[in-house]
C-alpha cells in the first residue's frame, strides 16, 4: 500500500464526525436529562401516571386541579388533603430511579398551603422498601413558592422510588415535584446525567444535530417540536406527548412525554461544553410524512419561518434583543455562535421543497452567513429522494441531509457511494445512518460486530470523499434497555450504567483520529474499497504532524501489507488501535461492556515503510507521527 502524504485530495471539515441526538428510547426524559421524577407536574395525558397513593398509616386524598386557561403552559397541580396520620404519593421514576450511595440528592417542590400545617417527609426507598435517604420540609406559605431540601443517600439502588408523605391534618397544593442528583454534568441544576454526557464528550464530536428526527415533525403538526416551548424556567415549559409514545404498539411506551427540561438552551450549552457545533433542526411546516403527512398551507408558513428567525436571535442575538435577552437571563450572555440550521427532518417531495424554499428565501436574505441544511429523505435512491436532490442542486442549500438504515451488506457495498457524486452540487450531510443486522436477542443485540465493521468500511468511503461529505452522524444515539422503540442504537444505558456498542467505538476511532486533510491510500494505484474485503482511508493532521490510517479487513483471513509512505519524512513509532471480534454477531452489554473494545499497541516503525498484519474481521486505526 502506498500513502501519498504530499497529495491531499480534500480538506476534512472539523464538523466531519458528529452526533445526532433525539429524544427516542428515553434519550432525554429518563436518560440524558437527570430528573428522576416522572410526570413531575401531573401533565401526562393521565395525570397520575407514574404516581401511586400511599395510605398505609393515614387517611387522605389527592385531587388533580386543572387551572386550564390561567396557566396553559403548566395547567395541573395536585391538591393533597390529609385527614389524619401520614398520607402520601410515591413516584416510580423512569423504570425506577438510579440512586448512588453516599451522594447528595436535591429535592424540590412548588407548594401552596391551604388549611392546617402539614409536614412533608421525603424518602427514597429501594425495591425492598428500605429507606436509603430522607429529608423533610415544613412551614409552607399560602402563596405558591419553590421549596428545596437535600440529603445524602445511604445505599445504591438501580430502581429506587421516591415517597413524599404529608403528615398532620390539612390541605396543600403541590406541583413540579423533582429530584436531581447533585452530581450532574458540571454540577448544573436542572442538569444532565454526567456519565452519559461523558460518553458523548469522549467521542469528540464535531457537531450535535438536535432535537430530532421524527420528533421535530410530530405525528401531527399540533405535537411538532416547538423550541420556544422548551426555553425559560423549566416549570413554564409546556409538556408534549413524545412522537415515540404511540409508535410501534408492540413496544409501546405510554408514559413517554417530553418535559423539555432538556430544551434548546441546554442543547446549545451541551454543544458548547463538548466543543461541537450546534445544528438545530426545525419543523418546516410538515408533520411526519410516514404518518399523517399533515402540512401547514403555504400562506400560513410565516410562524414557522419566524421560529427560525427567532432561534437565530436566541443563539446569536445580542442581549438587547428579545430572544438574546432570554438567553442571557437563562445564564448565557455570550452568543452560542450558531452557524448551521436544518429545515425539516426526513422529508422530500414537492410539498417539502416548496416549504424549504420559503424558509430559504427569508433566511438567505436576513442571515446569509447561516448554512442551511435541507433534507432528501431516506436513501437508497428512489424517485422522491432524487426529486429533492435535483431541486437542491439548483439552489444554494449548504448541505443536504441523507439518511440510511440498511443491511451491513449495503454499507459495505456503499463504501463507494460518494466516489462519483456530482462535485458541483451541495455538500452531503449523512445525518442518520446505522447498519441493521437481523439478530434479535437482548436489547443490545442488534448492535452486532458485523454492523459496526460495515459502518467502518462505509465511513472510509465518507472520509475518502471529505470534499463532498462534510458531516456524518450515527442514529439513534441513546437507548434505555427497558424503554426503547428503535434498535440498533449507539449507546445503551440503564438507570446507573451505560455501555458503548461496537458501533460507538467505530465512531470514536474515526472522530478521535480525524485529521485535517484526506490523502490517498492506494494499492497499485487504486483506492481500497472492497477488493479482497479491504477498505481503507487516510488523513493527515497538519498541526500535529500525524498520519492516520483506517483499514478494515472484512475477510475471515488475516491480511499482510507493506505500507510505504510517500512525501513525508519517516515513521517514528505510533499507535495501532484494533477493534475486532471473531463472531460477527458479538455485541457489548451493560453486564459485559468490554467484549468488543479497541486494543492499543505501540507501533515500532522507523523509516518510510511499515509492515502490518491485519487480523481477520478487524478495524485498524494507525496513528503515525511523521
Ligand atoms: O433515528 C430514528 C428515526 O429514523 C428518526 O427519528 C427519523 O428521522 C428516521 O426515520
Automatic annotation (TrEMBL):
<dbReference type="Pfam" id="PF06964">
    <property type="entry name" value="Alpha-L-AF_C"/>
</dbReference>
<dbReference type="InterPro" id="IPR010720">
    <property type="entry name" value="Alpha-L-AF_C"/>
</dbReference>
<dbReference type="InterPro" id="IPR003305">
    <property type="entry name" value="CenC_carb-bd"/>
</dbReference>
<feature type="domain" description="Alpha-L-arabinofuranosidase C-terminal">
    <location>
        <begin position="431"/>
        <end position="618"/>
    </location>
</feature>
<protein>
    <recommendedName>
        <fullName>non-reducing end alpha-L-arabinofuranosidase</fullName>
        <ecNumber>3.2.1.55</ecNumber>
    </recommendedName>
</protein>
<comment type="similarity">
    <text>Belongs to the glycosyl hydrolase 51 family.</text>
</comment>
<keyword id="KW-0325">Glycoprotein</keyword>
<dbReference type="Pfam" id="PF22848">
    <property type="entry name" value="ASD1_dom"/>
</dbReference>
<keyword id="KW-0378">Hydrolase</keyword>
<dbReference type="GO" id="GO:0046373">
    <property type="term" value="P:L-arabinose metabolic process"/>
</dbReference>
<dbReference type="GO" id="GO:0046556">
    <property type="term" value="F:alpha-L-arabinofuranosidase activity"/>
</dbReference>
<keyword id="KW-0732">Signal</keyword>
<dbReference type="InterPro" id="IPR051563">
    <property type="entry name" value="Glycosyl_Hydrolase_51"/>
</dbReference>
<dbReference type="InterPro" id="IPR055235">
    <property type="entry name" value="ASD1_cat"/>
</dbReference>
<dbReference type="InterPro" id="IPR017853">
    <property type="entry name" value="GH"/>
</dbReference>
<dbReference type="InterPro" id="IPR008979">
    <property type="entry name" value="Galactose-bd-like_sf"/>
</dbReference>
<dbReference type="Pfam" id="PF02018">
    <property type="entry name" value="CBM_4_9"/>
</dbReference>
<dbReference type="InterPro" id="IPR013780">
    <property type="entry name" value="Glyco_hydro_b"/>
</dbReference>
Amino acid at each position: 500500500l502506498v500513502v501519498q502524504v504530499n497529495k491531499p485530495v480534500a480538506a476534512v471539515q472539523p464538523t466531519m464526525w458528529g452526533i445526532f441526538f433525539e429524544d427516542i428510547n428515553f434519550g432525554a426524559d429518563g436518560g440524558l436529562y437527570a430528573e428522576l421524577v416522572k410526570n413531575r407536574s401531573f401533565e401526562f395525558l393521565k395525570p397520575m401516571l407514574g404516581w401511586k397513593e400511599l395510605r398505609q398509616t393515614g387517611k387522605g386524598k389527592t385531587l388533580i386541579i386543572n387551572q386550564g386557561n390561567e396557566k396553559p403552559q403548566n395547567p395541573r397541580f395536585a391538591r393533597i388533603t390529609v385527614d389524619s396520620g401520614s398520607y402520601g404519593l410515591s413516584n416510580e421514576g423512569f423504570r425506577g430511579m438510579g440512586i448512588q450511595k453516599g451522594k447528595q440528592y436535591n429535592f424540590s417542590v412548588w407548594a401552596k398551603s391551604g388549611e392546617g400545617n402539614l409536614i412533608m417527609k421525603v424518602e427514597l426507598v429501594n425495591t425492598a422498601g428500605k429507606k436509603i435517604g430522607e429529608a423533610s420540609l415544613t412551614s409552607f406559605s399560602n402563596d405558591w413558592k419553590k421549596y428545596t431540601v437535600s440529603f445524602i443517600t445511604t445505599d445504591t439502588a438501580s430502581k429506587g422510588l421516591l415517597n413524599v408523605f404529608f403528615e398532620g391534618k390539612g390541605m396543600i397544593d403541590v406541583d413540579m415535584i423533582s429530584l436531581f442528583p447533585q452530581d450532574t454534568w458540571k454540577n448544573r441544576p436542572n442538569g444532565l446525567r454526567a456519565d452519559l454526557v461523558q460518553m458523548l464528550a469522549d467521542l469528540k464530536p464535531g457537531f450535535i444535530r438536535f432535537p430530532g428526527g421524527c420528533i421535530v415533525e410530530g405525528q401531527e403538526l399540533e405535537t411538532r417540536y416547538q423550541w420556544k416551548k422548551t426555553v425559560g424556567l423549566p416549570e413554564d415549559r409546556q409538556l408534549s406527548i413524545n412522537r415515540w409514545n404511540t409508535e410501534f404498539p408492540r413496544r409501546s411506551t405510554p408514559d413517554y412525554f417530553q418535559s423539555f427540561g432538556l430544551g434548546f438552551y441546554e442543547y446549545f450549552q451541551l454543544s458548547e461544553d463538548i466543543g461541537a457545533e450546534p445544528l438545530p433542526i426545525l419543523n418546516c411546516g410538515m408533520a411526519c410524512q410516514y404518518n399523517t403527512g399533515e402540512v401547514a398551507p403555504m400562506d400560513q408558513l410565516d410562524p414557522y419561518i419566524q421560529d427560525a428567525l427567532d432561534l437565530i436571535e436566541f443563539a446569536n442575538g445580542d442581549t438587547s434583543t428579545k430572544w438574546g435577552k432570554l438567553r442571557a437571563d437563562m445564564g448565557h450572555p455570550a452568543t452560542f455562535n450558531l452557524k448551521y440550521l436544518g429545515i425539516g427532518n426526513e422529508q422530500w417531495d414537492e410539498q417539502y421543497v416548496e416549504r424549504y424554499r420559503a424558509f430559504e428565501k427569508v433566511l438567505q436574505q436576513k442571515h446569509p452567513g447561516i448554512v442551511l441544511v435541507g433534507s432528501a429523505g431516506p436513501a437508497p435512491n428512489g424517485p422522491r429522494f432524487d426529486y429533492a436532490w435535483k431541486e437542491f442542486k439548483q439552489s444554494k442549500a449548504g448541505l443536504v441531509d441523507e439518511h440510511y438504515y440498511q443491511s451491513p451488506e449495503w454499507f459495505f457495498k456503499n463504501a463507494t457511494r460518494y466516489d462519483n457524486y456530482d462535485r458541483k452540487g451541495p455538500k452531503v450531510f449523512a445525518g442518520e445512518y446505522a447498519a441493521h443486522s437481523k439478530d434479535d436477542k437482548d436489547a443490545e443485540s442488534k448492535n452486532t460486530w458485523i454492523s459496526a465493521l460495515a459502518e467502518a468500511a462505509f465511513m472510509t468511503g465518507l472520509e475518502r470523499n471529505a470534499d463532498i461529505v462534510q458531516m456524518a452522524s450515527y442514529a439513534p444515539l441513546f437507548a434505555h434497555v427497558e424503554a426503547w422503540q428503535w434498535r440498533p442504537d449507539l449507546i445503551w444505558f440503564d438507570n446507573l450504567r451505560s455501555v458503548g456498542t461496537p458501533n460507538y467505538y467505530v465512531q470514536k476511532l474515526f472522530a478521535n483520529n480525524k485529521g485535517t486533510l484526506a490523502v490517498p491510500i492506494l494499492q497499485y494505484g487504486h483506492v481500497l474499497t472492497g477488493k479482497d474485503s479491504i477498505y481503507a482511508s487516510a488523513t493527515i493532521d497538519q498541526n500535529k504532524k500525524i498520519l492516520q490510517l483506517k483499514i478494515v479487513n472484512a475477510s475471515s483471513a488475516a491480511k499482510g501489507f507493506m505500507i510505504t509512505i510517500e512525501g513525508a519524512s519517516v515513521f517514528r513509532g505510533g499507535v495501532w488501535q484494533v477493534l475486532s471480534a471473531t463472531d460477527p454477531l458479538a455485541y457489548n452489554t451493560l453486564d459485559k461492556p468490554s467484549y468488543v473494545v479497541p486494543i492499543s499497541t505501540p507501533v515500532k516503525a522507523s523509516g518510510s515503510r511499515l509492515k502490518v498484519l491485519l487480523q481477520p474481521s478487524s478495524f485498524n486505526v494507525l496513528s503515525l507521527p511523521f
